[in-house]
Design brief:
alpha/beta, Aspartate Aminotransferase, domain 1, Aspartate Aminotransferase, domain 2, 2 domains, 3-stranded antiparallel beta sheet, 12 helices, 12 strands, about 15% strand, globular, binds 4'-deoxy-4'-aminopyridoxal-5'-phosphate, ArAT, Aminotransferase_I/II_large
Amino acid sequence: MKLRPEILASPVYRQGRAAGADAFKLSSNENPFPPLPAVLAAITAELEINRYPDATAAALRGTLAARLGTTADEVIIGSGSVALLQQFILAAAGPGDEVAYSWRSFEAYPTMVTVAGATSVPVPNRADGGHDLPALADAITPRTRVVIVCSPNNPTGVTVTAEEFTAFMETVPSDLLVLLDEAYAEFVREPEAVDGRELIGRYPNLVILRTFSKAYGLAGLRVGWATGPEAILDAARATAIPLSVTGLAQVAAEASLEAEAELLERVEKITVRRTAFIDALRAQGWNIPASESNFIWLALGDHTLRAAERFFDAGLVTRPFAGDGVRISIGEEESLTPLLTVAQEILTELP
Ligand code: PMP
């Protein structure tokens, strides 16, 4: 069979191990709270599933645009922000082109670049788990078509500061597409961190991506959004799989925006939990990056898989990245005590 060799060599996206019924699922940075009744009601009212959804998600774009102070054409909706990332990469990069990003970061980036037929240029993160933006700027060549910045970075949780990001944007050619992936923005409490919403309209080459999957708890429905200059978004609209954002996802996202205050109270609980967890781990002696997201990172190097196994055996499903580290989502309150018990054991056993 004549299939593309680079695709055959490409890893298939996997979520890690399935969690047993009694286990805490802390492997996908999901929201541990159940769906809001208002969101469930909106979905139930939208059950005309014999009809196609609105292909442009006009109502949801309008709602978001009104909040952002943009036009509806400066907003795009995708089947999760991962679909939007793919659309932007396909719109800008093809064979012979380069896509640069800091690494380690969201594991889908390299695969999406390969799918586009382009070449990944990964630039190592700083020792503190943050992006090295001057090094990322240095990695830009005449062949670079897209640069991805992830803040807070998955899996380290470290943010880019507004100052670092502005300095970076000043050095990047103004016709080079920059994607600012802010999937975890609502969990940020660091005042110095970049906030893409404050940069809207400032750069002709900047697109900001966000999602309803994390803070808004709609991971299972697949809906994300991006905002940026209309011409760039139009190119991304042309690379979309038509009709991939379901009507259920669109109404659930609108209902979630209406119920935002209640959802953000939950986000606040998760950030408090995060801080308590990081403090307790540091008190045990762990070196933990300053996570501003709903997960934390244990840099375990060669001990990664063994450590993940220890957590798994204790009913704690985490996400190991072999040879690098274990990412643990901030989930149920009750998961923190067993997590800390196993973390202490692992630390004691480390050479
Ligand atoms: N960006 C980052 C950094 C992520 O971690 C994720 C989800 N793991 C996404 C984008 C995509 O999220 P979704 O497709 O659910 O919106």
